[in-house]
């Protein structure tokens, strides 16, 4: 990891309009939870539903898209990546550094807001808040790697990422039984289910499958990103 590249990337991410998108979704989650608490009081079932459908099912992949593509795709699009590639820094180090920045931003925004929203609705009951926070944390890391890779594979990363997040993760991965094993959202929920003892929550994907799959996808995507950066020439063409 290169600290100079990390510092520049953090400042770029936190100074762009993307920071408002990173903030907006978590704030919306907490606001919805506060409203539901005001209207219905504490409710474990409501907490689980909100965590599954919005926190893990909608917010997390979109944060992954914003963070994962945001740390590198704009630099490729405007050509400033050439300046970075001209420096004596290995491509794998650049890939790892960009991944760490994306993963840390997603983890902070996703995990903190998930815990706050779940805690508002159910406190520490049945481990719902802790479980979904853990799921958001590790799921966010996996999404960061996948969307980082997407950012170096195509100049249409955002459009393709939105389709992936909403169609595959939100619809196919959420409702088609056979596809659930290949959904990061479902892996994150599997982690949450392992911690939570809620009667309102269960998952089909086993932890024994979810954890190795998450590790393989994360590591594989970061390594592939490094290799892809090797293929970029200093003129900006493959």
Automatic annotation (TrEMBL):
Membrane-spanning ranges: 19-39, 51-73, 93-121, 127-150, 157-176, 205-224
Give the highest taxon in the source lineage: Bacteria
Does the keyword field hold Membrane?
yes
Q: Which GO terms describe its cellular component?
A: plasma membrane
Gene Ontology MF annotations: ABC-type transporter activity
Organism the protein comes from? Microbispora triticiradicis
Give UniProt keywords alphabetically: Membrane, Transmembrane, Transmembrane helix
One Pfam entry for this protein is ABC2_membrane_2
Q: This chain belongs to which protein, by name?
A: ABC transporter permease
Say if the entry is tagged with keyword Transmembrane helix: yes
């Amino acid at each position: 990891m290169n600290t100079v590249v990390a510092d520049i990337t953090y400042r770029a991410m936190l100074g762009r309009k993307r920071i408002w998108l990173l903030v907006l979704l978590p704030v919306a989650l907490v606001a919805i939870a506060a409203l539901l608490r005001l209207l219905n009081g504490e409710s474990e079932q409501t907490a689980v539903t909100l965590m599954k459908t919005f926190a893990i099912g909608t917010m997390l992949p979109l944060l992954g898209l914003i963070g994962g593509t945001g740390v590198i795709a704009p630099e490729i699009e405007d050509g400033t990546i050439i300046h970075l590639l001209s420096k004596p820094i290995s491509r794998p180090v650049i890939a790892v550094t960009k991944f760490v920045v994306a993963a840390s931003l997603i983890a902070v925004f996703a995990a903190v807001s998930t815990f706050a929203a779940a805690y508002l609705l159910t406190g520490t009951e049945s481990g719902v808040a802790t479980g979904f926070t853990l799921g958001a944390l590790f799921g966010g890391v996996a999404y960061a790697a996948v969307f980082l890779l997407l950012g170096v594979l195509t100049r249409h990363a955002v459009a393709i990422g939105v389709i992936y997040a909403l169609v595959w993760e939100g619809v196919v991965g959420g409702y088609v039984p056979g596809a659930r094993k290949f959904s990061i959202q479902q892996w994150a929920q599997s982690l949450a289910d392992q911690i939570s003892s809620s009667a309102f929550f269960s998952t089909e994907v086993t932890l024994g499958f979810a954890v190795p799959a998450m590790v393989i996808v994360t590591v594989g995507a970061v390594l592939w990103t490094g290799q892809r950066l090797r293929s970029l020439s200093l003129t900006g063409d493959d």
